[in-house]
Amino acid sequence: MNVLLQEEDCLHAVADQKGERLDVFCARASGETRSRMQGVLSDGGVTVNGKVAKANCKLNVGDAVCICVPQPVAMEVEAENIPLTIVYEDSDIAVIDKPQGMVVHPAPGSESGTLVNALLFHLTDLSGVGGVLRPGIVHRIDKMTSGLIVVAKNDQAHNALAAQMKTHAAGRTYVTIVEQNIREDEGTVNAPIGRHPKDRKKMAIVPDGREAITHWRTLARFGEFTLVRANLETGRTHQIRVHMASLHHPVAGDTVYGAQKPKLGLEGQALHACRLRLAHPRTGESMTFRAPLPGYFKRALIKAGCDVPAAEMDAWLDRLLDEERDE
Length: 327
Prior knowledge:
disordered N terminus; nine-stranded mixed sheet; five-stranded antiparallel sheet
């Protein structure tokens, strides 16, 4: 292989073996691990002959490969006295009802005001598996998505919960308001998701993406909008938003995958993780947690045409979800 140039965070190299997988070549060229390179590739950080390429791309001799590896950013995470709704807490886990608009963990551009900053203030222990920037974080939800997230307070709990997420022993139920009337009562979207080929900030359904499966069901119809329950069999970035948009029913308020002008007075997508099911990592006890509908979601439902009074919406939604479970 011929390394042409090493920039501050980008490496340019020329392929020297026909048929070599791109992720293997990138690991060889950069000295990084293959798994690290797969992460960079999934973020759209590698181009072949000027075009963003996937990990399983097969190279030809002479292909020009550009590898841009984000440099680690030195960042101290400080505890911040941010109000936090703790639904449940014991010595192993905490379940948080995250508000819409809160980022889960610090990152460039969001160094403070995150869930992690709040956790460091309110909790005495957090697992270290996620590293300095993600203590206790087992899974994430988008900044503008509200609802339940479980946090691990020690490494044993973290590893056990992560295993449950991987095998789907743990699960989350989302409710969302989507645009237009869905005629079908239920369905499943099984379509792989990866980085958008032209916009690295977006996800898309792509042939060589990672497996993504969303089960959805109609809960209530309001003419131009529909209330939908969604359960994930996989946990890809923006999965519900991408899959519902693929059905031509984008999540209301989602200006990335839907209408550029938000509807229903929303300032972000109407997507709420209302239930969380898991086995306690120490006792094995089956536990289910619920998060009430936040104010923004109730106001959007009323604007969509829901005639249930805001004060009664949580009981109404529980009945809808419990009726599904009993069928």
